[in-house]
């Protein structure tokens, strides 16, 4: 067989392989497990928002664009200066965790063109922090209502990011640190210390007051008991108890009893040899 006849086929095959290899990056693409993708058909100008491309290898036309989104949990840390209710400047560091809705990345691409973190998440977090902290004083933010402030910021940010036009799920928002001017911080800490001391003093007063009340109630109870006993000791009862005691003494094996006359209450007078 003449190899020269096969040469055109070999050349065509080599060219085809070269073209296929050159276009492989345009024909094949891979979506990682923590990713989702959508396709934009350049010829028709249509963004396919409904068909979310799942992880794995896929084939596309060279003129089709693919937009890939990381749908795992992301974190952003922001430092900013805000004003409290009284206009005092406060430096605050916030950390926020979030993720895009997997089935809504087409909406996110259409609205934010892949820059949803810088265009949506960060500005909304900063806005919520400023608005919420502007409703509290520095003392409340720093000490007494920090948890309430943190919850309010998270709730308001979560509501905005999760709205139908934004489609981002808020996972958590934490206030990492709050920095006040040194003099203000010291004044707040001194006030808190004085409040704790006042509470401790009030606790001691309440305890002593309770103890005094307990002793008063005990004394009143004992006095009422004595009054009841005294009112029940009639002459007849005392005489009867005396007779019973005399009988007991008379029958005692250790006593030699001599009755000499009688006592003023009509009871015998008993004398022992001891």
UniProtKB/TrEMBL annotation:
User: CDD domains from the entry?
Assistant: SPFH_prohibitin
> Could you confirm whether the keyword Cytoplasm appears in this record?
no
What main location does UniProt list?
membrane
InterPro entries reported in the protein's UniProt record: Band_7, Band_7/SPFH_dom_sf, Prohibitin
Organism annotation: Reichenbachiella agarivorans
Domain Band residues, every copy: 26-192
Membrane topology classification? Single-pass membrane protein
Identify the keywords attached in UniProt to this record, alphabetized: Membrane
Membrane as UniProt keyword? yes
**Subcellular location as annotated:** Membrane
Write down what this protein is called. Prohibitin family protein
